[in-house]
Amino acid sequence: MKKVAFKTLGCRLNLFETDALASEFARRNYEVVEFGRPADVVVINTCTVTNQSDQKSRKVINQAARKNKNALTIITGCMATHYKEKLQQNEKIDYVVDNEHKTSVLSVVEAHFRGDTVNPDNFEKNVFDFEPADDTFHTRSFIKIQDGCNNFCTFCIVPKVRGRAVSRPAEDIFENIRKVIGFGYKEIVLTGVNLGRYRYEKYDFEKLVETTLAIPGDFRVRISSIEPDGYSESFFRLFQNPKLTPHMHICLQSGSEDILLKMRRMYTAGEFEEVARKLRSDYPGFNLTTDIIVGFPGETEEDFQKTLEVARRIGFGHIHTFKYSVREGTRAARMPDQIPEKIKTARSDTVRKLAGEMKLEYRKSFIGKKQTVLVETFDRKGFAKGYGEHYVPVIIEQKGLEKNKFYGVSIIGIIPGKEPLLKGDLL
To answer: What region does 284 belong to: left with phi over 0, alpha with psi -120 to 50, or beta?
Structure first.
């Protein structure tokens, strides 16, 4: 039995694709082992959305080469698409498989071991031909519904490495969901590059989610990162269904209208705030998380302060903060008034501090309230840890609970820290 190890960097879309690949290898009698342990095959699913992502991907590639010198090394993902020719020249790498051919990773490996002459580009292109994963690296099951993007934001390289927007056939999605529910998964996460732009025959994103919620079974649905456009106001009515978790990660990027225009975003900061008000009004306690980019070309101190003001007014449950990263081939890379790294770092630190304060205040608001926790892991004492429906981490200080099972809890306190942890008592 050959051993295969996987490493995933970047987004939830990559997580879904790695899970599917690992499950496919396991069905072919490969032993899936932890990354870093001795393996016959190493598959690294890379990210290239920022310079930091590139650095992390290169670091992991070098780490794999040191620890598994004789392993067959496959590099796939967005970095494999963006820097394909450069990676092909790296002697530490056996095969570079771009995103369009990612579903063929197992076929590439097996052809290699048969002694065939292998060119990954000769395999079939299909970004959706992933089998449902019955045994993954996560308690929740990621479901890919869409790939690619047509927005062409001036800072973003995703359309180049993921291609134009394409939607997965709806019936394939529903069948995938039914299968993973049958495997025992209790949480389904819908994922893609630009979810709100899902369109397939009679289904838009709203109808897709509504139909998903009607599938029988004891499970809940979470929406992955989404843009603030592409879905109607009536979409929010779906959160009345207890299967749909009251949490959305909606990408703000900036609170400055001028910067949003330069980014070529398809909404205004005012429209974003209106969405936030609507959600919080209809569903008190709704967890709204976001992405913010600091140091975009031309961002003045006034622009930055507007971003902080919007963030304070909304009160995000969490903020992913990114320093603007020059991506060759994007319009923003050619813009004047590039911001010095020192200023970007200072602004990033400011946002992170504010984000930490807001996260703590938001989580404190759950004390005395109830959450339905899906147990995912156990600490060294045997206490169960998992996430409530609002995507807040909870520890249940009681032994003997079961993994991948829902428990109703009452939140009795909070353990402060970089990642504040709620404490819950079983109801």
So the answer is: beta
